[in-house]
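Worked problem 6 (solution included).
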Amino acid sequence: MSLPVISIGQMREWEQATWATGRPEAEVIRRVGECLARRALQLTSTDDFILLLAGKGHNGDDVRAARPLLADRRVELLNVTSPAASLRQLELFLGQNPTLVVDGLFGIGLNRPLDADWTAFITRLNGAHPRVLAVDAPSGLNADTGETFGVAVQATITLTVGAPKVGLLKQNAWPFVGQLEVANDVGLLPCPNTSELHWIVPEDFKRFRPVRPVAGHKGTFGHVAIIAGSLGYHGAAVLAARAAQRAQPGLVTVFTHEPAYYPVAMQLQSAMANAWSAAGKLPADATALLVGPGLAAADLPEEMRTAVRKLWRDALMPVIADASALDWLPLDHVPRNAVRVVTPHPGEAARLIKTTAARVQEDRPHALREISKRLGNCWVVLKGHQTLIGRSSGEIFVNSSGNPHLAQGGSGDALAGYVAGLLAQPAVQADVGLALRYAVWQHGVVADALQSRRRNWTVEDLLEDLGNVQ
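Solution. The predicted structure is:
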């Protein structure tokens, strides 16, 4: 199940509760070492050089426990008790261009500014720009606030223990944390803490999606209507439609601005395409509506914006608003229990709550809450690094998948289409939050799988595997 995002104090309480049961610290250290070694092996190849940096605390013990499990790598262990005395050895090892540096110098217990010798040691490490795997937290980073103690190791990946620490999710911590991963099966008791924020794990989706009835037909699995695409932006409508198809609703129909109709229709096969008109109507059997992708042309008719506002305000089916349509939404009440979803990136989120993107990024959970309140407690998918999913109250979920290569035009259109394709299905509508979390996680995990195989993948490649990665 998803993991609570906790403070250092809560982590200490969790550890103490575990030791009180008689479970030895040495066993947890051994298992953390196993997790660390497993990840280091995944990041390297046979005979690659791995440099282990171990401090005198338990983080150093974790690193030392990993060393025997790296037998087919060339490994050097540098135990650092005096950074000034160890700086020359660090220089020599860095000169050998290690494939991976494992940072176990300090853990989350550090609570004081680093002195000049430690500053020089960590600055030299960062200056070599190696790939770094940090244990629990990058050395020198405050895992509660995300601030540094003067300087911090710039990790490529941080493998935190038990559960994510709240400071590791702060924007100011991102350059040091890199990709955040969790080693949660290390012998601790089940986490006794609760939190506003929850970290998504793959096990959340073991029973998702619902099993399809053997006698199901197209009508059983819903009909997605998509209002998207305009001249010069027709690709967004195509990507959204194809992503919706990957969720396997019964039918997909695209309504696009008339000047874009031919380029949209020519690229779709099993999805239907129509030119949008003010006099037209959505399919009577539509079970979800996506509005917004590619509706950026200057000559869009005002009637289209009016129609979108009315649908947001009155439609009984789920309505998902993305991209340009986010700026059209009314603040009116919607029907009771009607599902509404918005999928802004930070800039769009800033416009929705009349602030700046920088302020949104400073406190992303607060921004999500404010957007949801402003739009009648709608669901919010706040995109970006560690995408958030939630509403004005209740739990907020932090996505654990994805990588910077998702920053391509069309990536958001694909996510919005996939969300709509899922929410069109009556069986999926029973748990909207789970469906949204799955869509975001699947979008990211497919990108991770693609990145592990090739460097030049595109959004079109993403669509090929969307929904197909476990």
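Discussion: The mean pLDDT is 96.
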